[in-house]
Amino acid sequence: xxxxxxxxxxxxxxxxxxxxxxxxxxxxxxxxxxxxxxxxxxxxxxxxxxxxxxxxxxxxxxxxxxxxxxxxxxxxxxxxxxxxxxxxxxxxxxxxxxxxxxxxxxxxxxxxxxxxxxxxxxxxxxxxxxxxxxxxxxxxxxxxxxxxxxxxxxxxxxxxxxxxxxxxxxxxxxxxxxxxxxxxxxxxxxxxxxxxxxxxxxxxxxxxxxxxxxxxxxxxxxxxxxxxxxxxxxxxxxxxxxxxxxxxxxxxxxxxxxxxxxxxxxxxxxxxxxxxxxxxxxxxxxxxxxxxxxxxxxxxxxxx
Length: 304
What we know:
4-stranded antiparallel sheet; rod-shaped; alpha+beta
C-alpha cells in the first residue's frame, strides 16, 4: 500500500468536509467529556466510600423523657442502665469488634447541637434533657455493625442503635444517580457522534464515487479504498478525544483540586493520577468507535 497516496486522500477528504469534521470533533469532545466525568465520579464515589466508611461510627442513643420506644417505657435512661450499656460494650463478646468508644452526655450533646444549628431558630427551643445521651462507637471493621445493633437494640434504656453508614449510603445513592445520568447523556452523545461520523464518511465517499469506481476497475483492493475514509473518521475523533482528555485534566486540576479540595478539606478527592488514567480510555473509545462507524459507512461503496 502506498502510504503517501493514502495520506493525500485523507488530507483531501478532510479539506472537502471541513465543516462536518469540525462537527464530529465537537460532538466527540462533548460526549467523551461526559464519559470521562462519569468515570471520575465513580472513582470519587469509591474513594469517598473508602475514606468515610472507615470513619463511620455506630451511635447508641439512650432514652430521654420523651422517647417512645419499647425500651424507654420508664422514661430517661438511669445511671444503672447507662452503666449496663457500657459494660456490654466492654464485654468479651463485643470488645473484639470495637476499636474505641466514648460517651456523650446531655450537656455535651446540647453544646454540639447549638454549634451545629447556631443560625437556626430551632436551637433556642431545645433543652439539654431533650437530647439523647449517646455512646459513639468506632468499629475495627465498620461492615460488622450488625453485631452491635443486635447486641444493644433490645437492651433496656437504649432508644436506638444507628449505623452512620446508612446516612452515607443515601448520599452515595444520589451521587450514583448523577453518575448514571452522566453516563446516559454520554451514551446518547456517543450515538450522535457515531452517526455523524458515518454520515460524514458517506458524504465524502458519495462525492468521490467516480474516483472509487475507477479505483475498483484498475484493481485497487478494498483495504486501500477503505483506509483513507477510516483515517478521516479516526482523525476527527482523535482530536475530539484529546480535547476531552484536556478538559478532564483541567476539571480535576482547577475545580476538584484547586477549589473543592481547598474548601472541603475533610474528605478525599480524585487527583491528577486518576485524570491521567481516564485520558487513554477516552482516546481509545473515541478512536475505536470512529474506526468502526467509518468502516461500516464505507462498506456499501466497495461493491461497484
